[in-house]
Every structure is written in structure tokens, then in C-alpha cells.
């Protein structure tokens, strides 16, 4: 009876700890839709992969220590100081939105298209609990486009506007509220004005390197932001990543977009999986859960796994002899690696103007 009561107690005790386990690996091509440019039918030889992230009860934590391919991470590893765990879902979907946008830009630029960009605002990426921003109703994904009647087109615009304000200042923010659907799709509503009162500095707004900003801020709103950017694409590009969050599919999505816009398969005859963030410039960044993703792509039949260079050792430690792990730092390196494996160099079905 005592043992049963202890198990029940452990099952009811939720820990500030999460488990990463192997997720799915699936073909990206069928998820990609492109309208406005000539495109090939979707191919199935480039895979994206993800991991499952789950909160843990004390009982699950004990049981999963006897399972293989599990990585335990604390909430402190996933969240900025003071940010509640309830924001993880919204943050993941915002990261996926950014990743899709970067994948389309990087892919089209790699094929020779010019993709102009313009700043649109400061997008909220985190809201500290019990902060002025939270009390004012700001949420992850909201885009701040003005402060006290002045236009905001970047995170640094926002920082410059509030950096020297004393605590207790009433600030009028012009905000385009985000709507995040149940499957993680982001849309923005028309901008409205909200008011916040700056507080004695509790933690820094997470933006650095802004020109004209020196010294410590005098007060604090309790947000982290990133630059809002709009790109003028020559086509409508969308990847159906229903209910998948995070930025780690960036490289895989970019390769699939290039593949669908190219005359010949860029993966050759290999089944290629890829993980890594992607920047519009084509830089590939590191991601989490690489060992668990390696297990997932092996189960899906991949023969090649492209990973960020800094995570090659982690992937190889989890790989079977039949999986070739290749490290890359850039999209150009990824394309060159595929070419060495027999893939075709990207050649657009529809040539960009002036090419």
C-alpha cells in the first residue's frame, strides 16, 4: 500500500525537466508548395527530422532513465531567466515561422534570385513573468511597430526608444497582435495601441549591439525581441509543418525548396536527411537533440545525414555503419556535399531575370 501511494505521488509530481526522444523523419518535398514559379513534382529523397519534447513527472523521469535514446534537459536550458514554461509552444512556432521564411529566401538566392528585404518592426520572442510587458498583454509573436508615435522597424529601434526612459514612464506601444492557430500557423492582426509602464530594471531586454545605445538601461519592460523582416519573394513558398515547432528543419526545408525548383534532383540517388538552422544568408546553425534525430533518420532509411559541423561527433556516436554523417557550415557546403554524392548542381527550371 505504501509503495502504491509512493508511485501515485511520483506520477502527480511534475518536474522542471523535459525529455528529448527520437521523433519522426519524413520527406520534405510533399510538404512544399510553390506558386508563381515553374516547379518539379515533389520528390521524396530529402528528409526532415524532429524530436519529441515532453514534460516529465517524477515517475516518468525514473522510468525513462532505463530507456535508450533519451536526453534530459532542464527548463533552464530551454527558457530565458524569468520566462514561464507556458511560452515554449509559441516560441517554437515562431521559430518555425522564421525558419520557413529563411529557407525560402536562402533557397531562392542560391538559385540566383534577388530577394529584397525590409524591416517591419520588433517581434517579441519572450515575455518575462510578472513584467510590465506581461501586464500590458504582450505575447510571444506580437510585433511592435511604433513607440510613442515613432515608427519601429527593428529590434534596435525599440531599444533606442526605451533605453533611457526612467522607471515609471508610461509608454504607448503600437502592436500588431499575433494569432497562433492550434496547428502552429501564425497570422497578424491590424496594429493597435497598448500602454505599458516601465519598471525598475529587473533583467535586460535581450537585444545587443545596437548603434547609439551605451550603458545600462534605466528601466525595463521585460521582453526579448528580434527584427521583424518582410521579404519580396518571386513566388509564394510554403512548407506544411503542421504542429512542428523550432528552427532545426531549416536546412532540410531549404534543400527541398531548391530541389523542387531545379531541373534535376540535387540529392542524386541517396536518401538524405538534414538538420540545422538556416539563415537567409545560407549560414547553417547548430540545433538540439542531434543524437535522437540520428536515431530517427536511421529508422526512416536515410543513408546520408547532413548536420551542423559542430555536431558531427554527436551524430556519429549515435549512427550505425550504414549512415554517412557529413558536417556543413553553410548551404553552399551542403549542396557541394550532395554533388560529390552524385546529386545535380542546382539549375532553376525558370531562370531568374538577368541570368
Structural summary, described in words:
By secondary structure, the chain is α+β, with helices and mostly antiparallel strands. The chain folds into 2 domains: 19-52 and 60-79 and 96-115 and 232-340, Ribosomal Protein S5, domain 2 (2-Layer Sandwich), CATH 3.30.230.10; 117-230, Pdz3 Domain (Roll). 27% of the residues lie in helices and 30% in strands. The protein has 10 helices and 20 strands. The protein has helices spanning 2-12, 58-64, 75-78, 88-110, 132-136, 155-162, 250-261, 290-299, 312-318, 331-340; strands at residues 14-27, 32-35, 46-57, 71-74, 117-127, 143-147, 150-151, 170-176, 178-180, 186-188, 192-197, 199-200, 219-220, 223-231, 236-239, 272-274, 277-278, 284-285, 304-308, 324-328. Strands 4-1-3-16-19-20 form a 6-stranded mixed β-sheet, sandwiched between helices. Strands 5, 6, 7, 8, 11 and 14 form a 6-stranded antiparallel β-sheet that branches. It has a two-stranded antiparallel ribbon with strand order 2-15. Helix 4 packs parallel to helix 7 and helix 8 (290-299) crosses helix 9 (312-318). It is globular, with a radius of gyration of 22 Å. The mean pLDDT is 88.
What is the succession of H and E elements?
Answer: HEEEHEHHEHEEHEEEEEEEEHEEEHEHEH
In terms of DSSP E residues, the strand content is 25-35%
Largest beta sheet: strand ordering: 4-1-3-16-19-20
Which structural class do you get from the secondary structure elements?
Answer: alpha+beta
Number of extended strands: 20
Q: What share of the residues lie within helices?
A: 25-40%
Low-confidence runs: none
Query: For the residues shown, what is the average pLDDT?
Result: 88
Computed Rg: 22 Å
Kindly provide the name of the CATH class of the largest domain. Answer: Alpha Beta
Alpha plus pi helix count:
10
**Quaternary structure of the protein:** single chain
CATH topology-level fold name of the largest domain: Ribosomal Protein S5, domain 2
Q: What can be said about the biggest beta sheet?
A: 6 strands, mixed
Identify the overall geometry. globular
Amino acid at each position: 500500500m505504501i509503495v502504491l501511494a509512493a508511485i501515485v505521488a511520483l506520477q502527480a509530481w511534475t518536474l522542471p525537466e523535459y525529455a528529448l526522444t527520437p521523433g519522426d523523419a519524413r520527406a520534405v518535398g510533399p510538404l512544399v508548395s510553390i506558386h508563381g514559379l515553374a516547379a518539379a513534382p515533389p520528390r521524396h529523397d530529402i528528409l526532415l527530422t524532429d524530436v519529441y519534447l515532453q514534460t516529465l513527472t517524477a515517475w516518468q523521469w525514473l522510468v525513462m532513465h532505463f530507456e535508450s535514446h533519451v536526453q534530459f534537459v532542464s527548463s533552464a536550458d530551454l527558457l530565458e531567466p524569468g520566462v514561464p514554461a507556458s511560452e515554449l509552444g509559441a516560441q517554437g512556432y515562431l521559430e518555425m515561422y522564421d525558419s520557413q521564411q529563411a529557407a525560402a529566401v536562402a533557397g531562392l538566392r542560391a538559385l540566383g534570385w534577388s530577394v529584397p528585404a525590409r524591416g517591419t518592426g520588433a517581434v517579441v520572442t519572450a515575455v518575462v513573468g510578472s513584467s510590465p510587458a506581461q501586464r500590458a498583454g504582450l505575447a510571444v509573436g506580437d510585433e511592435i511597430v511604433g513607440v510613442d508615435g515613432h515608427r519601429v522597424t527593428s529590434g534596435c529601434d525599440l531599444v533606442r526608444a526605451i533605453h533611457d526612459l526612467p522607471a515609471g514612464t508610461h509608454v504607448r506601444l503600437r502592436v500588431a497582435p499575433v494569432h497562433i492557430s492550434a496547428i502552429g500557423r501564425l497570422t497578424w492582426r491590424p496594429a493597435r495601441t497598448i500602454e505599458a509602464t516601465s519598471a525598475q530594471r529587473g533583467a535586460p531586454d535581450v537585444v545587443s549591439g545596437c548603434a547609439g545605445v551605451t550603458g545600462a538601461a534605466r528601466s525595463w519592460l521585460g521582453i526579448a525581441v528580434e527584427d521583424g523582416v518582410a521579404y519580396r519573394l518571386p513566388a509564394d513558398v510554403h512548407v506544411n509543418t503542421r504542429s512542428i515547432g523550432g528552427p532545426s528543419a531549416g536546412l532540410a526545408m531549404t534543400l527541398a525548396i531548391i530541389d523542387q525548383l531545379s531541373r534535376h534532383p540535387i540529392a542524386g540517388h541517396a536518401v538524405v536527411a538534414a538538420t540545422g538552422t538556416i539563415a537567409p544568408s545560407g549560414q547553417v546553425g547548430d540545433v538540439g537533440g542531434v543524437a535522437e534525430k540520428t536515431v530517427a533518420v536511421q529508422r526512416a532509411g536515410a543513408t546520408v545525414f547532413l548536420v551542423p559541423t559542430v555536431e558531427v561527433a554527436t551524430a556519429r556516436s549515435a549512427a550505425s555503419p550504414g549512415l554517412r554523417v557529413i558536417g556543413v557550415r553553410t548551404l553552399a557546403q551542403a549542396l557541394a556535399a550532395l554533388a560529390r554524392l552524385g546529386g545535380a548542381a542546382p539549375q532553376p527550371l525558370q531562370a531568374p531575370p538577368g541570368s
